[in-house]
């Protein structure tokens, strides 16, 4: 009986030792899992922070894009308005000039020191040109270069080339 009790005690001790080992292994496993959980929570917080930052930046970009789009639409509206104004102005000018015939170029004035068209003085920096058609003396601004033939005054050029006006 004593032997049997000793054997049962030995078996109980062995079983207790194995239970302690299992308990120790389970504690280590719990510690490892808690560490993983802690890292996962930190990663989750980082990802949540990154997501909030990305959402905030997306909202800011959307607001900026919306403001820019509104500015562009306003600019387009203004440009269309200006275009309509210019078209009306062009039509009004066209109607005013509809009945006007192009005048014949006037003969060149005898004063060789003035432009025949704008009456500007010829100086060192304002060159004098002879119109190849009416022989008038004109400045650079009042003449047109017609290639190898030389220059002619604007009135003569407009008479010869009505599609250029």
UniProtKB/TrEMBL annotation:
<dbReference type="Pfam" id="PF25366">
    <property type="entry name" value="RUFY4"/>
</dbReference>
<feature type="domain" description="FYVE-type">
    <location>
        <begin position="109"/>
        <end position="161"/>
    </location>
</feature>
<dbReference type="GO" id="GO:0008270">
    <property type="term" value="F:zinc ion binding"/>
</dbReference>
<keyword id="KW-0479">Metal-binding</keyword>
<dbReference type="InterPro" id="IPR013083">
    <property type="entry name" value="Znf_RING/FYVE/PHD"/>
</dbReference>
<keyword id="KW-0862">Zinc</keyword>
<keyword id="KW-0175">Coiled coil</keyword>
<dbReference type="InterPro" id="IPR059036">
    <property type="entry name" value="RUFY4_dom"/>
</dbReference>
<protein>
    <submittedName>
        <fullName>RUFY4 protein</fullName>
    </submittedName>
</protein>
<keyword id="KW-0863">Zinc-finger</keyword>
<feature type="coiled-coil region">
    <location>
        <begin position="2"/>
        <end position="57"/>
    </location>
</feature>
<dbReference type="InterPro" id="IPR017455">
    <property type="entry name" value="Znf_FYVE-rel"/>
</dbReference>
<dbReference type="InterPro" id="IPR011011">
    <property type="entry name" value="Znf_FYVE_PHD"/>
</dbReference>
């Amino acid at each position: 009986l004593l032997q049997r009790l000793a054997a049962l005690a030995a078996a109980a001790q062995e079983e207790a030792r194995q239970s302690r080992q299992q308990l120790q292994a389970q504690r280590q496993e719990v510690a490892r899992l808690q560490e993983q959980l802690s890292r996962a929570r930190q990663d989750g917080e980082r990802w949540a922070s990154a997501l909030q930052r990305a959402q905030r930046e997306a909202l800011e970009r959307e607001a900026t894009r919306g403001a820019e789009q509104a500015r562009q639409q306003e600019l387009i509206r203004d440009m269309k308005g200006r275009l309509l104004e210019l078209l009306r102005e062009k039509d009004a000018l066209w109607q005013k000039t509809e009945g006007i015939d192009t005048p014949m170029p006037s003969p060149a004035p005898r004063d060789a020191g003035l432009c025949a068209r704008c009456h500007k003085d010829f100086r060192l920096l304002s060159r004098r040109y002879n119109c190849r058609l009416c022989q008038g003396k004109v400045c650079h601004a009042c003449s047109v270069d017609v290639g190898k033939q030389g220059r002619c005054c604007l009135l003569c050029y407009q008479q010869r080339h009505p599609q250029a006006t």
